[in-house]
Structure formats: structure tokens, C-alpha cells
Amino acid sequence: AEALPVFLPLRNLESITAGLDAFLERELASPHLLLREGFGRRLLERGNLVFLLDGLDEVPASRRVDVSRWIEAAHRHQPSNRFVVTSRDAGYTPEVHLDKHQFLRLRVKPMEEDQANEFIRRWFEIVEGSLADNKASAAVVAKEKAGELTDRLCEPDFRVSRLFEMTRNPLLLTAICLVFRDRTKLPRRRCELYEECVTVLLELWQEAKRISLTVCAVDARKALEPMAAWLHEVPGRTRAT
């Protein structure tokens, strides 16, 4: 059988006492798929799966070590399948690290300019296509918006500023795309763009991941701003308990 990718957001892993098959079935539970009971087990028996375990850093810190050990155990018991685990550096602390004999640690390099432009093109194609009934008109809109944003990012005032560095990071570039789509333009002052991106990450990003909002962006910033200021008081300080 050909390799089959299986995307599983780790933030949705509720119980580490249950097996990988239970996690699979819970994630794929839908009245539209009409999957019979035991589907997760049968999928594991098929083999040649590529598990894409996304967002180890999004697991609550109190559970992160246990989830890492759960992943290692799942890998040992599934030798015919492959595992790819993603995490931001901030959440991948020494005690969370996966066994180096089982997992090869790789870092995503900053994107080159042509990669960033391709990222923007595909992002607008996917977003506009998923929201529109008319796919043909959505493709036209996506091409126009991607072109407008790419042209803006090529303007001299943007390229010589520190804002240009943000386009090399997929997460921050996604935030820029969201801001541009929402406002149809980018703020010219760095502080204003940062402010827009923070709002995107605190609200729109959560909504896009179907995570219920318990704290609005305004209240979240009241808590986060003093912590951010404290982090920046010492050069190179990037972590806090």
C-alpha cells in the first residue's frame, strides 16, 4: 500500500492511557464519514502510515513530558509506520525532547524570497477557495490579493525595515496574510503591524483552529504585555515558567 499521511493535532490528545487507534478514531469521528467502529485499529493494521503529530508545544506544559513519552511508546509499537512531530523551540525543552535514537531533530530554515511568494500564493488560493461558492471567481480574487501583497512586500520601505524579516517565518507570514486580507493593506509602521499580528494570533488564529475563545485579545494583552516587557529586560531571555 502507498504511504498514507495522517494529521493529528496533539492539542486534541485527551488521554495518554488510550492507544493511537483511539486517538485516530476520535479525530476522525464524523457523521459524514460513516466510519465503522474499529476503524483506527484497521488503519494501524494497514501500515505504511505517516503520522503528522502537530504542535507538541501547544500541549499544556504540565502534560508535555508525558505526551512525549506517549509518542515514543507509539513509535516503538508501530515500526511499520513513520512519525513526524512538530514543535516550536520554546516548547521543546530538554525534558520534553524525544529520544534521539528514535527521532532526528530538524529545524525549519527561514524561507527564501521565492518560497515566501509561493507561500503567499498558495495561502490565498486555499483561503479564498474554501470560503467561496464560485471557485473560478475565488481563484481570480486569490491571484489578485496574493499579487498585491507580494508587490507591497517588495516596496523599498518594507524591504529595508525589520518587517522584512517577518516574511521569512511561516507563522509570522501567515499573520501578515491574515492582516492584509482583513484590512486590504499593511500598516507602514512596524509597531502597528506588530499590534495587528498580535490580535491575529490571539483571536483569529484560535478561531481558525476551532479553539473556543475564553479570553479576548484585549484582556489577553493585559496579561501578556507585562510578561513580554519582563522577558526583554534581559538580552537573550526567551523562556519563562
Set out the fold topology.
Layout (H helix, E strand, L loop, with lengths): L3 E6 L10 H9 L10 H8 L2 E6 L6 H17 L4 E4 L27 H19 L3 H20 L1 H4 L3 H4 L3 H14 L6 H19 L8 H16 L9
Parallel strand pairs: 1-2, 2-3
Helix pairs in contact: 1-2, 4-5, 4-8, 8-9
What does this structure look like?
α3 (61-77) links the parallel β2 and β3 (82-85). The protein has helices at 20-28, 39-46, 61-77, 113-131, 135-154, 156-159, 163-166, 170-183, 190-208, 217-232; strands spanning 4-9, 49-54, 82-85. It is mainly α and 241 residues long. Strands 1-2-3 form a three-stranded parallel beta sheet, with helices on one face. The termini are far apart. The chain has ten helices and three strands; from the N terminus they run βααβαβααααααα.
Describe this protein with a few key phrases.
241 residues; mainly alpha; 3-stranded parallel sheet; 10 helices; 3 strands
Overall pLDDT metric: 86
Helix and strand element order: EHHEHEHHHHHHH
Number of H- or I-type helical stretches = 10
Percent helix range: 40-55%
What is the strand content? 5-15%
Radius of gyration: 21 Å
Order of strands across the widest beta sheet?
Answer: 1-2-3
Provide the low-confidence segments as ranges: none
Number of strand segments:
3
Global morphology: globular
Structural class: mainly alpha
**Amino- and carboxy-terminal Cα gap:** 45 Å
Reported for the largest beta sheet, the result is: 3 strands, parallel
